[in-house]
Design brief:
With 279 residues, this protein is an alpha/beta fold. The protein contains 9 helices and 10 strands. An 8-stranded mixed beta sheet has the order 1-2-4-3-5-10-6-7, sandwiched between helices. A two-stranded antiparallel ribbon has the order 8-9. It is globular.
């Protein structure tokens, strides 16, 4: 699946969109698109229903990932890694059938000034009445710590946690839906497309991310709601001078170093196996 990332990282966001659609066309996987506009940009979501050539009634498990990348970033981990896992899942479905009704959505405009533009547009137009659960895949290219966010009191995630541990992941629960780093002039921080489902009333929505175990001591205070200013200071120092004490994951986040050479193929394979087992 790393080969998919290598194809995506050299393309701009519009070309990433076309790459995914061509991937589906070449394999005769039917898809639809949803075009939308925000105050700041226009975007396009790509939607695949499974079983193919059908849109079954009733609840579906949603597997989602955003394909656009931050300004001038190759976007290998954020989030070609999530896209690659979903593309690998779709290829596997061409060989092995599943009894589960699934919906795959490749969201546009999660990154950038629109902030979750694609997922907000989707739930605004289609709602969440057919969503059994949503696994949103974002940043899964490095590390064996599996971040589940949010996860407080979510027993529905127990099967995923058990399977993750059997695959060598160490699940780490984030009890809140967002981590805000900056509140002025607009709220900015760590969030992903699962939040749009939560805001629309679907409580079984969670993002899955991975990070290296050595990053945990640096992330833990932030995840407890502590040390925000220190974290921002160190991050700015690293971005400006290359000397800040920041998690390994953040060294590649939203910058030109988010390249496929830092992505681990085994991580992608394990994430695919995990999703296959729990859907």
């Amino acid at each position: 699946m790393k080969a998919y990332i290598q194809e995506l990282e050299v393309r701009n966001n519009k070309q990433k969109d076309e790459y995914i659609k061509n991937f589906l066309r070449e394999r005769n996987i039917p898809f639809s698109t949803q075009t939308f506009s925000t105050l700041l940009a226009e975007g396009e979501n790509i939607i695949v229903d499974y079983p193919f050539n059908k849109n079954p009634n009733g609840k579906k498990i949603y597997l989602t990932a955003h394909y656009n990348a931050w300004f001038k970033s190759p976007g290998a981990n954020d989030n070609a890694s999530g896209v690659a896992v979903l593309l690998g899942f779709l290829e596997k479905l061409l060989i092995e059938n599943k009894d589960t009704a699934l919906k795959f959505i490749f969201f546009d405009l999660e990154d950038g000034w629109a902030v979750r533009g694609g997922s907000k547009a989707y739930v605004r137009e289609f709602g969440v009445s057919d969503v059994e659960k949503n696994f949103n895949i974002d940043h899964v290219g490095m590390g064996r710590m599996l971040l589940l966010w949010p996860s407080k009191g979510n027993n529905w995630l127990n099967p995923l946690v058990n399977n993750a541990e059997s695959l060598g992941f160490s699940p780490f629960h984030l009890p809140t839906a967002r981590i805000v780093l900056i509140t002025f002039p607009a709220e900015r921080g760590f969030v992903s497309d699962h939040l749009s489902f939560l805001e629309a009333g679907c409580m079984q929505a969670c993002s899955l991310s991975t990070f290296p175990k050595e990053d945990l001591p640096l992330f833990e205070p932030l995840l407890r709601g502590e040390g925000r200013l220190r974290f921002i200071y160190e991050l700015l120092k690293y971005r400006l001078f290359g000397k800040g004490t920041v998690p390994k994951l953040m060294k590649h986040y939203h910058n030109r170093d988010d390249r496929s050479e830092f992505v681990e193929e085994q991580n992608l394979q394990n994430m695919l196996t995990l999703l296959w087992r729990v859907t």
